[in-house]
Amino acid sequence: MMLDDAGFDRNDKIAGREPVQRKDKPTEQLYDREVPLNGGASSHGLLHDWLDGEVDVMRASEVEGKSKVELWTRINAESEMLRRRVTPVGVQQRIMASLPETPGTASHWWKQQMTVTPVAAVAIGLALLAVGALVIQMLR
Amino acid sequence: MTATPVQNQSAQNVGAGSSTPDGQAPAIDADQEIISKVLAGHKDAFGVLITRYSDPLYRHALGMTGSPDVAEDILQQSFIKAYHHLGEVRGRFDAWVFRIVANSCKDWLKNIRRTHVSYDEDDQPSTYSTPEEEMDRNELRTDLQFALARLAPSLREAFVMKHVEGRSYEEMALLLETTVGALKMRVHRAREALQQLLEEKYA
Predict the structure, then answer these.
(1) ipTM more than 0.85?
(2) What is the pTM assigned to this prediction?
């Protein structure tokens, strides 16, 4: 199960379809909705305050329980290990080696410089003449 | 005393403020100078930007994907994309390149939808004191990655930026172009979801 915010249930409602009951997605697990937290969620308020560095660990431990604080202490220790990670050796050199000589200064096709070969110029000229002749023919 | 479990790493460059520790020479000006050099044909100058920003960007990609190989690929592709579009940079380069990486990570998550990722392919040296401790923390690491993989990309992104990268809500709001309130909500929901997934085993 992926806890995502694709909003398929809402799409069903808009399209007038009967919403499909997903057995693997209980309705109470709506972690991703950006709506005000209800009463149930506010019981974790002090834990968030502690994790955001706003209250001390003792206070969080008293209210939220020692086990939760210990769990988050371990998660934070693991997160700090990841925070020390650096780009593996050789990646920067690989990026530099894969770059073309000149950087892009414009990405849109209408901003890009166009190269017209003599053959292409003649072809374009003939095409324009043909279009012009066709227009004149139609106007007569 | 106030405990601060999530230390803000404001010294890291990407989106972490644009000035040097003494507050005298804004890094954004230095970036602009480098960009001008690169656009003038000095390709090697781009290496300075890569060196300056690759570590925090790599950490973000690693936190989001859980795979060092994928994180490397995303980093490489993002810098190449940045190089190709360098003439379009308006404003801060660090925030601009961060958004390229962040979007690439979210695209990857949308396409792959992994249910399990791990750091098995990790080549970083171990810092654990005992084999038991290493095993214990490896298990938590795997479970944490498994739990993170079950979060919506926006919640995972908020959690990684707050807890792994140690950013302040204000920095996150600047980089993701949203409000502090919305980001607090995402981080809180991510924590609640992770806690629910992990507490049965660990709490």
Answers:
(1) no
(2) 0.68
